[in-house]
Amino acid sequence: MKRVRQAVVGSVLLLLAGAGVVLESVHAQADSVLHRYVGVETCEVCHSAKRIGDQFDVWAKGPHARAYTDLSSPQAQAIAARLHVADPTRDGRCLSCHVTAYGKPLPEILSTFRRTDGVQCESCHGPGEDYSHFSVMISPAKSAAAGHLTPDEATCKTCHNPSSPTYRGFDYHAALREIAHPVPAEIKKETLELGGER
Ligand code: HEC
Ligand code: HEC
Ligand code: HEC
Ligand code: HEC
User: Fold this and answer.
1) Is the dihedral of CA 95, 150, 49, 137 positive or negative?
2) How far does residue 168's CA lie from ligand 2's centre (Å)?
3) Which residues face 73 on adjacent strands?
4) How far does residue 182's CA lie from ligand 2's centre (Å)?
């Protein structure tokens, strides 16, 4: 399946290159087809280790982990009623920002993935099938080649924008501090050495 897709993408790229078309967006689309979503439990296996900073715990206690379950709250019901949305837990007008991989075709989603886990790691770091392996993860270059994305302000603003019914503005740096989940510096140095990149 993968090989067929790669071949198709490859020939499209050749055609476009001949026509002198900018290839950037085609690349981005090809990547999102080639890497599948695994769900937060796959990341949890390694990223709940205290030693590397327990990013899982920070996420689980933060706002994004409850993004889906909050769609059942009385406040969500009230917002939904105002917008004539019958069931916010099933309607794309809410799910598009309150879950990961909304609207992605089924072949891009592995059975370990659960929508009920809300806005998961892969909403910001990219679909993890191909980078969530130790030998890949310890190398930023290999991770990037396997579909790992480095999130920035634009990533946040795909959801934190005026289309959100509760939007109150968005201060990127303050928001980043609220969800900070760093890897301790000495561990970073150690793993980069292991990955051969320092
Ligand atoms: C464009 C993305 C987007 C859409 C669409 C969206 N939300 Fe949200 N929602 C957010 C974001 C981002 C937040 C965090 C607060 C903010 O900036 O709006 C949020 C927060 C919330 C909260 C938490 C309360 C709060 O004030 O923080 C509730 C409840 C909620 N949304 C319900 C809904 C419902 C119901 C719908 C569908 C009718 C919906 N949202 C559609 C992005 C979205
Ligand atoms: C809402 C977006 C978002 C979600 C969800 C998210 N992250 Fe991140 N993550 C970021 C951003 C942004 C950075 C870079 C922060 C910076 O530049 O200081 C980051 C950085 C990291 C880093 C590197 C930290 C460092 O010190 O270099 C790790 C590891 C990480 N995230 C793992 C995870 C895991 C595992 C999950 C899920 C349990 C997760 N993230 C969920 C946005 C997110
Ligand atoms: C896929 C959509 C999505 C993306 C991408 C996203 N967020 Fe959110 N974010 C939400 C939703 C939905 C909520 C509300 C969750 C709730 O309270 O139920 C939220 C809530 C928050 C909150 C809690 C405060 C508030 O405004 O309610 C912070 C802080 C936050 N996000 C930071 C970030 C940062 C920083 C990034 C980018 C690195 C980011 N988010 C990317 C959907 C997203
Ligand atoms: C087999 C263990 C393992 C799994 C599974 C795993 N990671 Fe990692 N990850 C690591 C290790 C080890 C590092 C290196 C820590 C460091 O030095 O930044 C890392 C680093 C990262 C970084 C920082 C990368 C950078 O270039 O700075 C992010 C972000 C990240 N992981 C996200 C994820 C996400 C999201 C998932 C799930 C889709 C995941 N990881 C699954 C072990 C794992």
Assistant:
1) positive
2) 23
3) none
4) 7
Residue 128 Cβ < 6 Å to ligand 4: yes
Q: Where are the domains of the chain?
A: 1-34, 36-194
The pLDDT of residue 18: 34
Mean pLDDT on 18-39: 56
Residue 47 near residue 56 (C-beta atoms within 8 A): yes
Q: Which CATH number fits domain 36-194: 1.10.1130.10, 3.40.1620.10, 3.30.1360.70, 3.50.50.60?
A: 1.10.1130.10
Tell me what percent of the chain is helix, strand and coil, each rounded to the nearest 5: 55, 0, 40
Residue range 58-89, pLDDT digits in tens: 999 999 999 999 999 999 999 999 999 999 99
Alpha carbon nearest to ligand 2 atom 14, residue: 151
Whole-prediction pTM value?
A: 0.90
Contacts of 20 (CB under 8 A, 6+ apart): none
72 CA distance to ligand 4 centroid (A)?
31
Could you say which ligand is closest to the alpha carbon of residue 147?
4
